[in-house]
Predict the structure.
Amino acid sequence: MAGTLFTFVFLLLCSTFLYSYRAITKGQQKSETITTIDGKSANEKDVENSKRFTRYKTGKKLTDPAFLEQQSTDIVVKKIPPIIDTELERKCPPYPPPGLVGLAYAADAIVIGAIKEKITSQLTEDEGFLFSEYSVVVEDVIKDNPNASIELNSAISVVRPGGKVRLNGKVISAVVSNFDPFFDGDRYLLFLKYIPETQSYQAFTNASFLIEGEVVKTPQMGRPEQNKQAFVTEVKDAALGERCQAVVLN
């Protein structure tokens, strides 16, 4: 009897441990931080940064009382980033990859960094979508900003489309297709545009690459993932390459 009881308790503890371990490794406990906002919550920096997301018009006004009353407690607003095609300026060499060269030319800075924390989510200028600001600790600078040099281990402000807020008792999530929220501790390789008015940087759907260990997630480049060291080498070479096709950060 005692042996049977011991076996039962042992199996119960093992199953509990395995369940907890599985939940953590799959990231199921990650949830986006909610920012409570009202008509006065946005500061001057937020207002200026909100002007950078004109491509994320939804035809809605999230602050409209009539709109909010028609919705359930949790509201999800989705947006697919626009596809912007550009013509070849000349025949491209196979290496560095022309897409990466175009991204490098379009970016003011390219960094590898870790998400330190989410600072806020706010309404875009037309109040039809949300954007979020994060603090990102810089681990490597592949292309420096000539107008505002980025120091290693410094924290920079990065804004991007999407976010989650509580407004008039309703929780609103703004979801960007193929651009998951940033979470604390996540590491990214980012092609960034500088916003001199706020000294922030803007991150983009087609130019933000999640790093997981020795792998970089690269679906934007037509491949689900690539070896981290190989991809970083490609990006460094692309930053020195000669552009043959303009690429729009979006």
Remarks:
- The chain has one domain: 30-240.
- The first helix runs from residue 2 to 25.
- Residues 1-27 have pLDDT under 50 and may be disordered.
